[in-house]
Structure formats: C-alpha cells, structure tokens
Amino acid sequence: MTEDINVSLSNHLIRDDEQEDLCFAFYKTSTGNQRITALINEVIFPEIDDRNIHGNVSFNPDYFDKATSYALKNEYGIVFIHSHPFPGWQRMSTDDIEAETMLAPRVKAITGLPVVGMTIGSDGTWSARFWEKTASKTYDIKWCETVRVVGNGLNIHYNENLKPKPKFGQEFSRTISSWGPSKQESISRMKVGIVGMGSVGSIIAEALLRTGIENLVFIDFDTIERKNLDRLLAASEKDIGKFKVDFQKNRLFDVNLRKGLDIEALPYSITEKTGLEAALDCDLLFSCVDMPLPRFTLDGIAYSNFIPVIDGGIDTNPNSDLSNIEQARWKAHTVGPQRICMQCLGQYTPSDVSLEQSGELDNPYYIKGLPKDHFVNRGENVFGFSLSLAGMEIQQFLSMVLQPKGIYYGPKEMDFNFGNIDFDFENSCEKDCHIKAQLGQGDSFNKILLFDHPNAEKSRNKIQEPTMPKVKKANPKTSSGKDSIIKKAIRKLKNLFDDSKGTFPF
Fold it and tell me: Model-level pTM greater than 0.85?
C-alpha cells in the first residue's frame, strides 16, 4: 500500500480507547514469477451504523453489501482489515478466523478473487493472509511473507515464520554499528533487483552485497565485450563473451560474504516476460539502463506495482559545441508512489520509446540523421563517473530504507566541472501524467509493458547455456520483420499515451 493509505488506515484502526475497529479496502493483483501481491488501491471506511464496537468489533450486512457492490463495479478484490490492541505481526483469534472463513466463499463468488485479511497491531505493524480455495472446496489461510508500505520511504513488515531474522557475523559489525541491528535485519531480508549490469550496475551489486542484502536479481541480456573492460567492475580479458549477469553472480559468490546469498541471473530484457516477472518479485529495483524503452517499463512497474525504482544516468554530451568533459553531469532519483515519475522528470519521452521499439535505433543511416543533441549522440561514460553515479544511487537507497531524521532524498544531479549537486527539481508529476494514472493497477497494466526484444534473443542465441530458462514470449504470435514491429509499437504505445488532446507525437 502507499504511505497515504497506510496513514488513513492507521488513524482509523488504532483507537485511543484501545478497542478493535475494522474496514474494507480494495485491491488489484500484481503477479510475478514467484510472488503474488495485493495492491491496495482504495478504502471504504464504515459509517456509524456500519459496524458494532464492543471491545471486539463486527460489521453489519449493509456495509458488506456496499463493499461488494463497489468491488464488482470496479473489478477489485476485497480486503477485510481489523485492528488488535497488541504490537507486532498478529496471529488470528477464533473470532477472526470465523469472520474471515465466512467472508472467503462469498467474496470469491462475487469478485472471483480471494479475500485478503489484514490486521494492524497497536504499534502500526501489519500482517496479512490470502484465503485460497482448495480442491475440496474449502478455504485455507496462505500467510503473506511481507506487507510493504511504499512512498517517500519503504517500510516492510515481515512474517518471521516465513522470513526469519538473519544472523550476522563479525564481518558486518561495522555496518550494524552504523544503523543498528533492527534496520540491518530489515534491509538484509529485502529482495532487490538490478536492471542493467554494466559499469553502474556492477558497482551497485558489489555495494548491496557488502550492505548485507541476501536476495538479488540481475536482469541484463548483454555479454561482455572488449570495449567494456575499462568500465565493468572486476572483468578481465578472459571474461569476454560471458553474460554480464552470470559473470557478476559468480564473482559475488566467490566473495563468500553471506552464507544465505541467493542471486537470480537472467539474460533477458526487462521488457520481456521473463525479465518483467522477475522484477515483480522484488521489493525495490535499481535502473541502470540508458535507453528509453526499459526506462518506460521500469517507470510503469514503479507506479502500477508499488515497487520503487532508483534510476540514474550520465550525460556527457548534451551540447555538440562542448567536449564531453565540459558537460559531464549525472543524476540519481527514486520513482514510485508519491514521487515524480521518470517521464515527468525528463528521463525519456514517449516518442523516444516508440523510436527504440521500432528498431530504427539499430539503423546507422537513421541515427546519422538525428539532431546532434539527441540522446543517442551522448558521449560514453568512464569508470570514475559510473562510480560516482552508483554511489548516488546507493545513497538514494539508504535514504529510503533507513529514513534518517525522517528526511528523504529527492532527485540529485552532480555537475562534474563545478562540483555542485543540484536538488531543486519538481517533486510531483503533471496533472495529466499517464504513468501516475496507472497507480496500483498491477496486472491490468503490466501486459502493456511487454515487448519482444530481438536484440536480447540474438544475444542469447550466441551463448547456448544448458541451464538457461526458456524465454517467455510476450505474445505467442511473435512479430517478424521491421514493419510488423513498428506497427505493433505504434499501436501499443499510442493506446497508452494518446489522449483526447492528441499528445502522443504521431
């Protein structure tokens, strides 16, 4: 849920008189490869006659009817939420089980989705469970691993039966002393994805390992080339031709810092089904890409799935009259609920997204005709610049999860020549922002983010790994030929960005 919804629910449910209270909320699903998430979009608070408070609390039939009617009209699932006057992750009382057991078949029959039960403790800690229908037509509790609250910060409430607190040795004593064991236990249990394992992504992977993150996902279809060796952390001549994700995975395992380390290395694009579904399993994503199409996809993931994305980029040649070094700048920012999106921040444009998907950016004759200030004509970055940008992205990450003094970083941009860090950027999206309009839409929007990626397939075909998972196509009828790709891109992206004002540039 977003921070705004969390505040509203907490204010209603945690009562000064320490009695229990309740309400109904509504959700959309977000389905990854291994995880299903209920994204809470709206809440319908009870009126005076909708529930009876008597130490415990019960709802009246009219309130349930209002909730089911609204859910049916808007194609939502239903969340039944109540409070307990005790701290921590809450188990269920006999009354709780009876109430949710009664709701489970009715909600499933009306919405087609399982009812989600949630409880908030007196300290604001959330717990949650799905009520799944079994083959014998009964309903069983499936406890959630986490409840995530996303906005300026990222707060994760863990089910310690499923996600127990990790143990740390002396190798993390300095890290723990910086922010305490409670924060370290929370950070280490996060699942963090890195999209793009080039110079910036490889440094971030190193930093996350040494911060104690146990679950990492690497997404990048590219292989190591000789031209990468001056920028790719720890790569050498013998590594040329390897997938970047596999190289970094093996390298981090060789460090042998965390016994419970789990790294998923996927040689896919974030725009492909395999890459997208892996990203949806993550609590937070790092965007280390430099092209508009994957940025658009990550932007959509951040808002439609409540998964914050930390993005960054290096610009070394925005003006052809000046040398690369004279215009070196790099920016880092976090996008997601209650923050400005990448599109409104100017990190990509819809026209550049469609241009990349059309395949024209692989056409040297087309590129030659683009203006000199177009993003494809930017200069190459160097390791020193990548190191600085990676550091700024890690600062964004630590600010979001540690929340020192309740202060959160907004976008920051480093000017290499003057040594200035600019931070005076817009912090909210435009009123008609197409990305923000998809807030919490989950699976209903995720399908728009999928595209076949010929370059990714070509890269995988060069290296036939026997253990490599089979690619999941965005569409079983794969487009063939540039014309069909262009038509598909225009149709798909125009449907997303075009509005009554005709703002999409076709």
Answer: yes
